[in-house]
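=== RUN LOG ===
request id: a7f3
mode: sequence -> structure
chains: 1
length: 615
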Amino acid sequence: MKQKINFLIIMALIANLSFSQNNSKDSLRLDEVVVTGSKTQVSRKVVPLSVSQISQKDIERSGQMNILPALNTYVPGVFVTERNALGFGVSSTAAGSITMRGISSSPNTDVLVLIDGNPQYQGIFGHPLGDAYVASDVEKVEIIHGPASFLYGSNAMAGVINIITKKQHDEGLKVNVGASYGSYNTQKYYGTVGYKKDKLSLFASINHDQTDGTRANTDFNINNGYAKVGYELNKKFNLTADFSIAKFNASDNGSIYLPAPAPFNIDVTRGKASISVDNKFEHSEGGLKIYHNFGNHILSDGFRSTDRNSGAMLFQTFKLATGTNVTVGADFKQYGGKVTNQPFLSVNDSLITVNELAAYAYAQQTLFDKLTVSAGLRLENNSKFGTELVPIGGLTYNLTDATTFKASVSKGFRSPTIMELYMYAPNPDLQPERMMNYEISWLQSLLNNKLNIELTVFKVKGDNLIQVVAPPFPPKRQNVGSFDNQGIEFSAKYAVTKNLFIHANYSYLTLSKVVIAAPRQQLNVSANYSYKIWNLNVSSQYIEKLYALNSANPFSPVIVTVPDYFLLNSRLSVRPLKQLEVFVAANNLLNRQYQINYGYPMPGINFNGGFNVKF
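=== RESULT ===
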């Protein structure tokens, strides 16, 4: 009953708020343009998949230093774990795990993170490194709910998060510097510079974050830099190249429920480079992307590794006169690495690589200016696992300019990582995980486009899931798992007046079996009010029925339920000058005691303040 009341409250709030006739650029339009669901720019209304978008303004108002926590606030059905004031860390007991629609793994390998469309994950363990995604580099984030394996391959089984970085759009020079200081000696310093002249554009940033942590020996610090250059070769071709490097150190003092171990420390260096050539003709557009990710991991238990993840993507969309859009593409990917100083591993000092080669085609046909039918097929060959067929089918129907219905059926899959095959509880005979996703969505614009809502109902069925089985001993990973998840996702954005905006999302998830970091109910409500030089952002989160892992024995883990929690955060800023913003933020205003990772208490009420200067 309590859960139903929470949902009814937010529905009533959205339905009964008064409104004005002032136009607002912040209102969420049904016809907003996205790229992640098709690899080329299309209206969100014709993409059959459920796609969310977080704007740069949303990110700035949230006050988050890292982009992943902003997903919890603005995206339904997505949950990201945390365990400290800053820093996600790595390993199965770390934070930064991303769950979509109750689909997750350990470490996190079911949600594919992209930067400007290029895959980002560690070559041996197969998971993204959440600590490297700083908010100051981000222009917007696009999220696909549910599998996008037909476009992106293996790790997109649960969904896709595409972080789109900033680009200098206006002529001239722009500089942005900022700093903040808060509880637990948490500090952030950053600077960005953008420059554009004629056909050349540049963007570069440097960041430093650090904290002493909420307990002894839970400190964290990171330094990272990013540079991006774009050049318009002519009216039809654009060249873009970028490079980033991040180095971070984190300490883990273990669960408070276990005897205090020696602090576990990690020293990680991650980098990436990419180059792309995009083309846009009157009836065709596409691109060629080449990328290379690399890393070096040093852990205090003696683990050492170097890894890489490199590839190329070629795709082109043809817009035919018959109302048909056809996208064809090909991907090549090679990932792997080498582990040293681990004599009990069979891959010690051995370079292991896996190759993937794929081709796909995707077609959309618009009928009667209202109905768009979509179908696609991916053929992927893995050097270890052979060939995988990945289909998708869907339709969208625009009943009116303000009302859209969507439906889709799509397959997702995930190939076992090198770690699962050869390292910890290894099994070289593992096969890919697979799932089918069924969903229908309703998108509605009301009140002269001031209120926009989206409701999605989904069902996902998967099998062949990889799990650690023990006994017998030693433990061994096997394809023994299956799941049947279903749920709803609801989001709304309401421009009450030109100064007041409310964003809310709610998700309800039914699981056939317990899943770590997949709350049954999640409710997020945020409000942003601006008055002259002042801006106030207030956000709240309610989490119900969240499971976590008691890692006393990593090969015989015990799943526990952490207490439900409600959080209230706020951020107040003022602009005494056009170029200067001064802010103060308070998190967990109600001083709730809560945990996301079992045995890792999250901060009580905490504060930070700082400034941003733009000129």
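=== NOTES ===
The chain has one domain: 2-614.
Residues 2-16 form the longest helix (15 residues).
=== END ===
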